[in-house]
Amino acid sequence: MAATLMQTANATNFIILLTAILVFVPSSEASFWRSPQKTINVRNWDKTQISIRCFSFNDERKVVHLKPQEAFSFTFRQSMIFPSSTMWNCSTTQGTIIAFKNDYDCNKNRNNLCTWRFSVKEAYRYSPEYKKWIRYEYNPDYESLSRGGVVKGQLPMV
């Protein structure tokens, strides 16, 4: 009887400890459950002001109006369960660029930084692997054309 009671107490203590670990560890800032922060740096590489809005499937930033050579950065965490599901887009009045996805080499560098230069006609992402700027053409899509540019939900003037 005493042995059964001791086994029940040990099982109860184990369940309480496991519950505490599962509840408190993932929410701590230094948790091994969380991926490191990634940073996207965006610079206006044009001679005119550019308006940019960056967004993902579950988060978005406000429209930023960048003067020539002006820049901004933002950080986020990549999904630990499905890393390839984390994707960030940046939209201008010319179209949209995929600013972050899992297979970009900037995702695998030490400082977790993806650096972009935007101009009116195209955008460039710095490749740490090749140590050069890679050119990207804008993809005109619903974000830039039928929804009125970088302002979410704004219909085009007719």
What does this structure look like?
- With 158 residues, this protein is α+β, with helices and mostly antiparallel strands.
- It has a domain at 39-137: Immunoglobulin-like (Sandwich).
- Helices cover 15% and strands 34% of the residues.
- It is built from one helix and nine strands; from the N terminus they run αβββββββββ.
- It has a five-stranded mixed β-sheet, with no helix packed on it. Strands 3-2-5-6 form a four-stranded antiparallel β-sheet, with no helix packed on it.
- The N and C termini lie far apart (84 Å).
- Residues 26-30 and 144-158 have low confidence and may be disordered.
Q: Strand-and-helix sequence, N→C?
A: HEEEEEEEEE
What does the average pLDDT come to? 78
The Cα radius of gyration reads 22 Å
The number of distinct β-strands equals 9
Amount of beta strand:
25-35%
CATH topology of the domain at 39-137: Immunoglobulin-like
Please name the CATH architecture of the domain at 39-137: Sandwich
Organism: Rhododendron williamsianum
Family: Belongs to the plant self-incompatibility (S1) protein family.
Main location: secreted
Pfam family, one: Self-incomp_S1
